[in-house]
Write a structure and sequence with these properties.
- With about 210 residues, the chain is mainly beta.
- The chain folds into 2 domains: about 100 residues, Immunoglobulin-like (Sandwich), CATH 2.60.40; about 80 residues, Immunoglobulin-like (Sandwich), CATH 2.60.40.
- Strands 1, 2, 3 and 6 form a 4-stranded antiparallel β-sheet that branches.
- Strand 2 and strand 3 form a beta hairpin.
- The longest helix is centred in the N-terminal third of the chain and has 17 residues.
- It starts with a helix and ends with a strand.
- The N terminus is likely disordered.
C-alpha cells in the first residue's frame, strides 16, 4: 500500500512539474475611422487608418501584472515598440498588404515565453443609400478616414444619370425638388470623396420607386 502511494505521489509530482501553465491573451483593437453612429458591426480599417491595440494576459481568474515584463510589438518581423509593461500599441494600415498582422511577444512571463499573432482585416471605404420615402434619400459612408462627413466629405448625387442638387440641410441627404409622381422609377447614385484624402472615395447606386 505504501509502495502504491509512493508511486502515485511521484506520478502526480512529475506531471505537475512537467506541464506548463496556459495563459490567455486578451487583445482588443479599434480602428480610428468613421462609421454611422447606429452601426453595430466592427469598424474595419482602410488604407492609412490608425489602429489602436490593447493587451491583457489572463492568469487564472485575474489580470496579470505586466509592469515588469518586456512586451514587444512587431509588424512583418520588425519590432515597432518594446519595453516594460507596454500594453498598448498603435499602427497605421498599409493597403498594399492583405491584412494588418501584428505579433505580440512577452519573452518571459513566470519563466515562460508568450506569443500571440493578431490578424486585422483591411477593408475599403463603402457607402450605402437609404431610401427614406417621400422622395428622400440618405447616404451612409463606412470606413472613411474622417470624423465629420458633413464637413470633410464631398457628396455628389445623380438621378437617372443627371446631376442633382439636394434641397436638404445636410450634404448626405437628398430631397428631390419638384412634384414627382408616385410610382416613378429612379436610379439614384451617390459618390463620396474624402476631402482630407483625395484618393479615398466610394460610390453606390440603387433603384427606387417613388411613393
Amino acid at each position: 500500500m505504501k509502495l502504491l502511494l509512493t508511486i502515485l505521489i511521484s506520478f502526480f509530482l512529475l506531471n505537475s512539474t512537467g506541464a506548463q501553465t496556459t495563459y490567455e491573451f486578451m487583445v482588443t483593437w479599434k480602428a480610428a475611422n468613421y462609421a454611422p453612429p447606429d452601426y453595430r458591426g466592427k469598424v474595419l480599417p482602410v488604407d492609412g487608418t490608425r489602429v489602436d491595440i490593447a493587451l491583457e494576459i489572463i492568469d487564472g481568474s485575474r489580470l496579470a501584472d505586466l509592469s515588469r515584463n518586456t512586451i514587444r510589438w512587431s509588424i512583418r518581423g520588425i519590432v515597432q515598440k518594446s519595453g516594460l509593461g507596454v500594453k498598448n500599441f498603435s499602427a497605421f494600415v498599409d493597403a498594399n498588404k492583405d491584412d494588418l498582422v501584428v505579433d505580440i511577444s512577452i519573452p518571459s512571463y513566470r519563466g515562460q515565453p508568450l506569443d500571440k499573432r493578431l490578424v486585422i482585416p483591411i477593408a475599403r471605404p463603402e457607402v450605402a443609400i437609404e431610401y427614406l420615402g417621400n422622395d428622400t434619400f440618405r447616404a451612409l459612408p463606412y470606413f472613411f478616414n474622417f470624423t465629420t462627413p458633413d464637413q470633410q466629405a464631398k457628396f455628389t448625387w445623380t438621378v437617372n444619370g443627371n446631376s442633382v442638387e439636394g434641397t436638404g440641410p445636410d450634404p448626405d441627404l437628398l430631397i428631390l425638388a419638384g412634384d414627382i409622381p408616385s410610382g416613378t422609377n429612379l436610379n439614384v447614385r451617390v459618390d463620396i470623396q474624402n476631402l482630407l484624402k483625395q484618393l479615398e472615395f466610394a460610390s453606390k447606386s440603387i433603384q427606387a420607386i417613388t411613393q
